[in-house]
## 1
Amino acid sequence: MPHANTTASRPPLVHLKLSGDALGAARQRMTSLPRLNIDRNVVLDVEKLANGTFSPLTGFMGSADYRSVLDEVRLANGTPWSIPVILQFHAAAGITVGTEVLLWNEAEAAPSALLQVSEVFGIDLLEQARKVYGTEDQAHPGVKRMISLGAVCLAGAIALLGHSKSLIPAAYDKDPSEVRAEIDRRGWRTVTGFQTRNLGHKAHEHLQKIGLELTDGLLIHPLIGWKKAGDMLPEVILDGYEILIEHYYPRDKVMLAGLTTAMRYAGPREALFHSIIRRNFGCTHFIVGRDHAGVGNYYEKYAGHRIFDRFSAAELGITPLRLHGPCYCSRCDEIVTEQICPHGPDAWRDISGTEVRAMIARGEEPPASIMRPEIARFLIARGRSGAVFFEE
Ligand SMILES: [Zn+2]
């Protein structure tokens, strides 16, 4: 291990939720404030700022932090940070520094948060596309979404007024402080975090169990944002993991919770972002696999490993576990990686979500070589009785 991060060396968490008298006063005041609509993904960003998921951020970034993140992959004070957390609009007429603004959850017609505007600044969307996503191509889903939000940014501290309706059951929708408390209750000194957007298959199980060999506990932490067609439904991912854990994991060494935030598909920068988030949830180690947070062929498959070379585990507060992408090898007849198997691509079969999806659609059980039979049967049963994948 290059650095021994433990749960004893956690950074403090930001907390920006109003309660009691302060909440009552804010709710009185909000009716007279300028109101700006934000979409569902931005609502999630607001909530993640408020519950400390994005600690040490205390609001939407100003231009100094923004520039520094683009150019240095650090906040202006030097703290490692890779993804801009900015509040974008197409225009902000009449909004000036010092204005208090109500951020309005448009989809639910409900108040989200107050923003104390500390700066209004313009950004170069294509520069951000290049520097954060590595491409200006608007066929890239992260670039497309980022550009669609507009080039005028409002910075400032936020104060949360209320939560949106959760995307996942309450039992899995845990704040960082709650996950840290559960880790402490279990007495884990070291914890591996695992990012996923899919149901557990044998390649992911391979990675997770390497983590579990190295640390006291494992946090399986599926990222669940607003879905696009073809994404697996959150309840399928979570229910499937419960089955997997019940049959194949030591129950007292594994926690399952959801992280509700948008995928950025920013590849290596998002791998770093995901690790910082898991540090905030109490993890000491984080698995970075092949093409982490990638999409299409925009990123070199181990770019997500290399970005961590620029930072020490001590300054990140979390140790990356750089693992190779597992696949099924027909000659070894087990899950392997290019690090441990000599047989090469002819014998290797990647386990892709697309392939699993096609099998489920045909009512075909994914083979035991790539998926545990309990999960395969669960998926088939779900497919018969309802939806497995999100459809628009
Ligand atoms: Zn092999």
## 2
Amino acid sequence: MDTATAPRQTDPEALQAFLDRFAADQAATMHAATVVVGDRLGLYRALAEGGPQAADDVAATTGCHPRLVREWLNAQVASGYVEHDEGRYWLTPEQTACLADPSSTTFVAGGAMVVSSVHHAIERALTAFTGDGGIGWDEHHPFLFAGTRRFFEPAYRANLVPHWVPALDGIKERLREGGRVADVGCGYGAPLILLAQAFPEATFVGYDAHVGSVEAARRAARDAGVSDRVHFEVAGCEEFGGRDFDLICTFNALHEWGDPVRAAEHIRSALRPDGVWMFTEPQTDETLGESIRARTFFSVSSFVCTPSALAQGAADALGAQAGEARLGALVEQAGFGRFRRATETPAFLVLEARP
Ligand SMILES: C[S@@+](CC[C@H](N)C(=O)[O-])C[C@H]1O[C@@H](n2cnc3c(N)ncnc32)[C@H](O)[C@@H]1O
């Protein structure tokens, strides 16, 4: 036994440090619920639009209960999410960009819906952990579906058209002239809608196994005025029907699938010989250790991603922290000839596979 694992007495300083850390985590976890409420009820927006104001003014603007709004505001101040002085509350420009403005590329409030959905899944996770490990994507609370879109969409808006597509040799030029694009595991369809707005000559189809997400994606395409060129179909990743695509995308979905190698084979067969499969997966750390990113993704993967793959019959699910080497091996196994990291962000690997 080495010194790291040898039994020892509790160190009071280390104990207090851990208790402090737990208290901070507990506060953040509790506070996440107030972020969902503030986002859903327009409380952050009212603060952003109204400038410094009393709690009763926020309540009046939003039609919410004044006493609860005051409590909520004080919770925000305690978390550093809202400013306060002499009974008036307001948001800084930075707080506005992260909490009140969904059109901002740093809008993060949607992430709290995903946090909340994981907590809704605890009862089901208990049976999964002691049973066959599976939880279907469709078994989750609706916050997961809407929250996933709201959580990821700002990053897609910041990166997909300006950075990710140009990183794929020749694809931007092809989409300018036309071209056929698919998104497999499309969820609420946000990336395809962004692509359709940027490339008006191209046509787009999104596939997802989850009926509710496909319906939401169709509504979003109608609202964005692109439903003549963007279609969404309920279809699994191993059986969608389209062919001859110039570009197939998969955004943070591969690790949810039961047999990603078979799905990748199907994707390869649906590409033109000179087509490209671009897929994003979360960044990973070199080694297992303390990391905010790994903490987030391993946690959500324990309740959502890995159980989804297991529910679809995965022998050894990828999980949301598979890493580039394992993903490259998967792509090779599926018969792709070329694989590379096209680009990346601090959060995502953007990977490119060609037949
Ligand atoms: C994490 S979400 C990502 C959604 C979307 N790509 C995005 O980035 O917003 C994973 C998606 O994969 C879909 N999915 C899971 N298993 C699937 C399968 N076997 N075939 C097709 N879609 C699947 C889920 O329904 C869900 O919409």
